[in-house]
């Protein structure tokens, strides 16, 4: 589950833009880092403002949406982002705010794709991207992790993909597990975000890695998974190591 406390996005200093234009869009706690073929920050700001407005108005009427740690039903007239978060949360038995960063990243990214062919939107470490070329990403599992700076991987982003991370030891997100990093790849970024939270909650020791990957390899909602805890790491699915 995501909290609203701001944390410096130090990992943005590691990004190579590969010829795309980097820019940031910030509204209150929402802080997006975006790569696109040209500076589309005003378009991105408009979409982000709408997402935040939809969320704030809904939570003002239904405050449980912001605090629930398990799925909740939503009103029939709820905005699309509210329904998408609720659906993603229901698929993985977590609260809807577990999907908020991924949902916002995808909403902004999909809107920008109306004016660009390649886009990457990062929101608190959760990513939506579309690119004709396979982008290279780096695993971050904490400064003390034996895997720091060692794990690079590619994903297929031609049709748009969500790549989201949860951790029980890094950052301020609420987690009931001990994983240093759980990375989930899915067609939908809200789903990837909810899945990362749910899977991270279940990782209590290095001995859990193989069993959880075996279970999740049969989950049709996700297409790739990395779990890192202590000196143990496991991979499955649409992930190509470099």
Spell out the key features of this protein.
disordered N terminus; 6 helices; globular; 11 strands; 8-stranded antiparallel beta sheet; alpha+beta; 3-stranded antiparallel beta sheet; 242 residues; single chain; T-fold
Computed structural class? alpha+beta
**Main β sheet profile:** 8 strands, antiparallel
Number of helices: 6
CATH class: Alpha Beta
Which parts are unreliable, with pLDDT below 50 for 5 consecutive residues or more? 1-14
CATH topology grouping = T-fold
Strand content: 15-25%
Count the E strands.
Answer: 11
Spell out the helices and strands N to C: EEHHHHEEEEEEHHEEE
Question: Can you tell me the overall shape?
Answer: globular
CATH-derived architecture: Roll
Radius of gyration using CA atoms only: 17 Å
- Sequence of strands across the biggest β-sheet: 1-2-3-4-7-8-9-10
Overall mean pLDDT:
91
The named CATH superfamily: ApbE-like domains
Distance between the termini: 30 Å
Q: What share of the residues lie within helices?
A: 25-40%
Q: Return the domain count.
A: 1
């Amino acid at each position: 589950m995501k909290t609203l406390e701001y944390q410096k996005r130090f990992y943005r200093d590691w990004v190579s833009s590969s010829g795309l234009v980097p820019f940031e869009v910030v509204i209150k706690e929402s802080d997006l880092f975006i790569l696109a073929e040209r500076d589309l920050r005003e378009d991105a700001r408009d979409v982000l403002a709408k997402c935040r407005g939809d969320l704030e108005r809904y939570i003002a009427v239904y405050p449980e949406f912001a605090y629930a740690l398990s799925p909740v039903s939503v009103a029939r007239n709820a905005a699309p982002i509210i329904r998408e978060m609720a659906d993603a949360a229901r698929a993985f038995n977590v609260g809807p705010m577990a999907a908020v960063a991924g949902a916002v990243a995808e909403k902004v990214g999909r809107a920008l794709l109306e004016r660009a062919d390649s886009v990457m939107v990062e929101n608190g470490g959760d990513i939506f991207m579309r690119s004709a070329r396979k982008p290279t990403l780096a695993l971050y599992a904490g400064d003390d992790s034996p895997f720091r700076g060692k794990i690079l991987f590619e994903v297929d982003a031609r049709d748009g993909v969500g790549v989201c991370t949860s951790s029980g030891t890094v950052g301020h997100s609420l987690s009931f597990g001990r994983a240093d990093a759980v990375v989930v790849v899915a067609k939908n970024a809200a789903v990837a975000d909810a899945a990362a939270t749910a899977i991270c909650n279940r990782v209590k020791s290095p001995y859990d890695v193989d069993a959880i990957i075996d279970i999740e390899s049969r989950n049709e909602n996700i297409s790739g998974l990395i779990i890192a805890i202590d000196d143990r790491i496991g991979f499955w699915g649409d992930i190509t190591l470099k």
